[in-house]
Amino acid sequence: MNIIVNIRFVLTVLSCFIVLPFTPAETLADPVVHSVARQWNEELLEAIRKDFARPTVHARNLYHTSGAMWDAWAAFDSNALTLIHHEKMDTGDIQSAREEAISYAVYRLLVWRFTGSPGASTTLPALDAKMAELGYDKSIVTTAGNTPAALGNRIAETYIDFGLADHSNEAGAYENLFYEPVNEPLLPELPGNPDIWDLNRWQPLALEFFVDQSGHVIVGGVPDFLGPEWGTVTPFALTPGDLTINQHNGDDYWIYHDPGAPPRLGGVGDAEYKAGFEQVAIWSSKLDPADGEMIDISPASRGNNSLGTNDGHGRPLNPVTGQPYEPVIVPAGDYYRVLAEFWADGPDSETPPGHWFTIANYVSDHPLAIKKMNGKGLTLDALQWDVKVYLALGGAMHDSAIAAWGVKGWYDYIRPVSAIRALCDLGQSSDPGQLSYYQHGINLHPGYIEVISAQSSAPGQRHFGLGGNMDQHLGKIALFAWRGPEYIGNPDTDAAGVGWIRCENWWPYQRPSFVTPPFAGYVSGHSTFSRAAAVILTKLTGDEFFPGGYGEFMAPQDEFLVFEEGPSVDVLLRWATYADASDETSISRIYGGIHPPADDIPGRLMGARIGANAYERALRYYGLGTTDSDSLVAIPTLNASGLAILALLILGLYRAGAQTRTEGRGRF
Fold it and tell me: What would the DSSP string read from start to end of 231-247?
């Protein structure tokens, strides 16, 4: 390890020592006492998990509660700018007043937002219990007077009124005002896609009952497109200079950071269209842990991509320890299945924007976290750090939802389950000499995408059983892919595995009551949210790396996967940087059968711009010198004995980091 890495490591440990008072080891082991902002953020995340899985709505909830916290905190700081509720207040005990104002503001806002939630019977009592635990009387509802409680109630009232006028149609339960799909619904339980007429446009799904990714059952009918008009919602840092307004049938579609049109079948980008959806089908063949392929999924081999690419091959050293990253060797099929499940909506279905809040909280809890703005200056107390992180991250998640769903609504792009089945219904476009040739059909890829023939479906051959009892399926397209829910009787004991299936029966790696999210594919919301969040966390911490040089999540053997058994071994996801985690989020959607690359890369590029702009906007609200004396942690004065003990502490932490490197372990 060279001298530069040594100095960086020592400085990292010194910073952690400064954050924590110089106390005996048994005191250092005490549980972290979270700020009141963090406690209310956890209440919101739990409420989201019990609500319908609506990424747009919950990005907005995260932003508005973060803004309310910020306005309550900033009310007691002469330099900080307020966001939506503009009021300043003087008090003797600033910390206590801030905690009280934040609690009343967030409590009132969350009660308002989640009273109609399917989880209200659990969420509302939990909010009441949190108020009681913090020692506040929920019956104080007055907005008059100079008490912190009254201030908090005024802030909540401001945000409630603001939300009713921000073009989200909250009063109308966020329902669409004018969007209508052009395609008839797909019935995924039936073969093929016979009723689609525009293979470039989004297609609804018709299910007997739909279970969203939070587990809520929506009985009967066709789930509506979620948020196609969301581009008009009032943003945080998006500007008129970022905006394009398009019209269709007299209705406005607002797009920020317009990436341009996606590839079109039979039009511009025809080859890319086919290649992208073919890649989704081919990657579906990699979801079998029994195929014998073992891979290293550690930061030594994965990540370190250039923005907008998957060109990285990992990193040689952990910059904190100066040591190589340990290999993590697992079955490839387990890794890809865990990716699809973990990044879908977060490990506990808090939706993608909520998932990044759990990651931010994980980072803040890390013993090596340095709570300095951009890694510089004075160390912030837990409350100031949390409200600043939440404001920037909440604003970025909200703007990501507005921008991504504005694009989704305007370009109205098809999902893989619709495109792959429809392309195969058309036939194959590779070989005029084979059966089922059609110029707009799917391309053949030997070993993955093939035509079912009399020879290939004969007994003992690879397509045996696919030709049908009367050879009625000869000429159809076969895929070597994940076999789908038909092969899962009991999800606690069965895994579908990979094999040859008729393409007309292809499923994304999702449960049959979900299939695919109820909104258009282009651009990927996951890619947009995740890259924006990665930018925010990098800028706030002043370091592209997770504390300690990596973050991680353990998916336990035979417990983690939801709709089939697995993984077959413990799978330890590990990322060196926030950008690495973001890129893994993006590719997870291809393995999950939810997006082609054409949806992914533009979302990453949009997210990078959105995150940078949100951070710059947040700095304006932070103001200059927004660090009250009671918000700073003093650097302890050490005598010779203290310095000797500190040296031993550094040496012990270094050895522990170099030998075990488990500082980042924990479930988000």
Answer: GGS--SS--GGGEEEEE
